[in-house]
């Protein structure tokens, strides 16, 4: 989370102009940022002048129709968040809005909940003559608010026959992660107390629920299920859960409810079977002699490893490509009789084009090799000064007031300071898109994706290797065979209880089968985004760390199309970089390049990187749009975009977790590492180290003795 805004005001909206600005924030957030399928369906044409005006009018009409309860309280409160408007002397601008409703079915105690959406809204105005869409809206609204209606009715016969409902909460994307949503929610919670200690309830999206949880809301029941007609079931709808501040039926995990053959007792439970989790499982079981169980959401181990085998038996790697020789990595391959060697790949001709316009950038001049190597060596010399602070983990990272200035510099400034111009194109193309804002990012973030080990490999000072089988899944297949029944595949943790004496986990498979895991230690081996950690019953300190993480989403795939050129790597290059200004790069979301994969195939690897809002369909569409642009712009020969084939595609999920520069300066690394061992829980993976397999294994070599200490 970025620093909170000092001059933030939370107060009642008092004009139609305020309401219009609140609707504008909703358009930016629900329309453009998250593309919320429910909000968009409720506000058709929101991105057109007519639809925008209609949405504003509906919201203003609701604001003007607000009533009072018998105590003189507003039954619906529109709350605005404002900050100084730097474009207007003394003015303020609305950057967020919440709608709080005191709901009750008892007359005079609040606003009755809407049970029939068609009675509350003129559906013919929203969708003239479209009865199917009108029916869909009614089904959506009832599904989303079904539990709300039930709770309000349940309260009718109690001494406090009303609840405070957080009906709407939005913050302009430009002002998110600054504590504004928390303040809007706190207003309602404090008002609920003032009104006699009313319970607060809400339907929470994936974006908002961690804020609500931190302020005292708890999830009740599973995700909200949308009951819609078959003709609507394929439509996209966002994840929502029902949350409340009291009366939640969260019974403790009861061992007696599980059959004996569905109870697993172990020394260590590992959640996540990627590079870190699989390696840790082997070492804990074989080297430390501990009993383990791994909960893995995929049907295999290996995480970002992705191998495609064609009909002839040839294999193509489109996830992990090769490995840096680091620590005892080679010995781990030898343990499983996986023969390794130096990876070989046919030489490709690089071509340069702007994927957003499809125009060739043929005037771009790649740096001369001797200049590139010299610049990489300068980077290496600088990076080695800080290597022990970062690798293989941050145990030695300095306190905030002692962080080297180099690590906090925007990387563009760092690069100019050390004359890295000739290295910049390669540094960006290898892992750079993962940082998203590359030249503006703190140098520490760049060193997390391109550090001293990578530089050593590229200048020939350290080798890389891979399986001679050209199949990166070989290792993980053998690990899976070794671990046997100690892995629960296609499973996730649905619920957790953790304290200093141990943990209980309910692991749920895709088929719905549940297992109770009782363990003395828990090892989290996946990227701990706030969304991924929701089922782990986070405390305030844990929430305070995980909510500060920003991250990229990464997708990799193999495509085929007749217009793509054999033996060519077509690199996404902005025209500003030509001929030799190496500080200009494409902006996210980005398709980095179309890379020919060799082996006399017609296959090309694609790597797509965006922010946390980029979903799989958005990534696929970016590939389609880029190809269409390149054909239309002339960078590729004529062809039909519909001939594009996605041969393989994988969602790598959240990657490159990072805290803001301000959070780093305030001691984020120390706060993060203080969680190791807290509530019997330990953490491994890229969020605690870097995104390279063999360095993560070296991290485990240091971490695991701590995990099993006194076990």
Automatic annotation (TrEMBL):
It comes from the Eukaryota. InterPro entries: Acyl_CoA_acyltransferase (IPR016181), FAD/NAD-bd_sf (IPR036188), GNAT_dom (IPR000182), Trichothecene_AcTrans (IPR052523). SUPFAM superfamilies: Acyl-CoA N-acyltransferases (Nat), FAD/NAD(P)-binding domain. One of its GO terms (molecular function) is acyltransferase activity, transferring groups other than amino-acyl groups. It holds the Pfam family Acetyltransf_1. Residues 166-238 form the N-acetyltransferase domain. PROSITE patterns: GNAT. CDD domains: NAT_SF (cd04301). PANTHER family: GNAT FAMILY ACETYLTRANSFERASE, N-ACETYLTRANSFERASE DOMAIN-CONTAINING PROTEIN. This is N-acetyltransferase domain-containing protein. It comes from Pseudallescheria apiosperma.
């Amino acid at each position: 989370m970025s620093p909170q805004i000092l001059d933030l005001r939370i107060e009642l909206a008092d004009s139609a102009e305020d309401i219009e600005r609140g609707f504008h924030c909703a358009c930016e957030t629900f329309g453009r940022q998250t593309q919320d399928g429910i909000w968009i369906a409720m506000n058709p044409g929101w991105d057109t002048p007519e639809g925008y005006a209609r949405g504003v009018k509906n919201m203003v009409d609701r604001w003007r129709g607000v009533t009072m309860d018998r105590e003189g309280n507003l039954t619906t409160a529109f709350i605005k968040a404002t900050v100084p408007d730097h474009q207007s002397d003394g003015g303020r601008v609305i950057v967020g809005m919440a709608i709080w409703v005191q709901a009750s079915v008892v007359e005079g105690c609040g606003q009755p909940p809407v049970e029939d959406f068609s009675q509350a809204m003129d559906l013919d105005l929203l969708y003239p003559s479209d009865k199917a869409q009108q029916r869909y809206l009614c089904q959506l609204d009832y599904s989303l608010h079904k539990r709300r209606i039930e709770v309000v009715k349940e309260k009718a016969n109690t001494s406090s026959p009303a609840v405070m409902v957080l009906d709407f909460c939005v913050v302009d994307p430009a002002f998110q992660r600054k504590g504004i949503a928390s303040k809007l929610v706190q207003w309602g919670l404090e008002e609920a107390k003032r009104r006699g200690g009313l319970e607060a309830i809400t339907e929470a999206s994936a974006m908002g629920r961690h804020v609500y949880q931190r302020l005292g809301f708890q999830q009740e029941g599973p995700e909200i299920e949308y009951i819609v007609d078959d003709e609507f079931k394929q439509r996209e709808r966002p994840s929502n859960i029902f949350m409340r501040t009291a009366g939640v039926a969260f019974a403790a995990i009861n061992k007696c409810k599980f059959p004996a053959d569905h109870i697993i007792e172990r020394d260590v439970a590992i959640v996540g079977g990627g590079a870190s989790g699989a390696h840790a499982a082997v070492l804990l079981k074989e080297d430390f002699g501990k009993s383990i169980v791994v909960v893995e959401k995929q049907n295999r181990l290996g995480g970002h490893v992705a191998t495609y085998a064609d009909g002839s038996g040839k294999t193509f790697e489109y996830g992990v490509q090769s490995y840096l020789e680091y620590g005892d990595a080679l010995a781990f391959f030898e343990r499983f009789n996986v023969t390794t060697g130096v990876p070989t790949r046919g030489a490709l001709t690089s071509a340069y084009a702007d994927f957003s316009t499809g125009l060739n950038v043929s005037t771009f001049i790649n740096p001369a090799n001797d200049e590139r190597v010299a610049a990489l060596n300068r980077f290496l010399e600088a990076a080695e000064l800080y290597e022990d602070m970062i690798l293989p983990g941050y145990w030695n990272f300095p306190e905030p007031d002692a962080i080297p200035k180099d690590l906090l510099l925007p990387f563009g400034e760092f690069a100019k300071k050390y004359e890295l111009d000739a290295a910049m194109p390669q540094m960006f193309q290898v892992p750079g898109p993962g940082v998203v804002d590359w030249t503006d990012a703190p140098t520490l973030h760049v060193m997390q994706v391109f550090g001293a080990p990578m530089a050593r490999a590229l200048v020939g000072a350290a080798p890389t290797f891979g399986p001679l089988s050209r199949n990166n899944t070989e290792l993980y297949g053998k690990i899976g065979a070794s671990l046997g029944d100690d892995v629960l595949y296609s499973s996730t943790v649905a619920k957790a209880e953790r304290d200093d004496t141990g943990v209980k986990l309910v692991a749920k498979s895709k088929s719905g089968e549940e297992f109770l895991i009782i363990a003395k230690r828990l090892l989290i081996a996946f990227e701990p985004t706030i969304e991924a950690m929701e089922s782990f019953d986070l405390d305030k300190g844990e929430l305070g760390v995980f909510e500060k993480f920003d991250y990229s989403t990464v997708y990799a795939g193999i495509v085929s199309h007749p217009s793509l050129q054999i033996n060519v790597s077509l690199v996404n290059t902005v025209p500003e970089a030509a001929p030799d200004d190496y500080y200009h790069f494409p902006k996210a979301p980005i398709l980095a390049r179309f890379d020919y994969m060799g082996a006399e195939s017609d296959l090309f690897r694609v790597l797509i990187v965006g922010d946390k809002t980029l979903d799989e369909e958005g990534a696929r569409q970016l590939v389609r749009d880029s190809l269409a642009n390149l054909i239309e712009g002339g960078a590729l020969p004529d062809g039909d975009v519909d001939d594009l084939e996605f041969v393989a595609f994988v969602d790598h999920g959240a990657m490159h977790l990072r805290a803001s520069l301000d959070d780093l300066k305030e001691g984020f690394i120390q706060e993060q590492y203080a969680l190791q061992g807290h509530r019997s829980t330990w953490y491994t993976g890229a969020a605690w180290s870097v995104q390279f397999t063999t360095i993560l294994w070296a991290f485990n070599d240091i971490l695991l003795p701590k995990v099993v200490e006194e076990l």
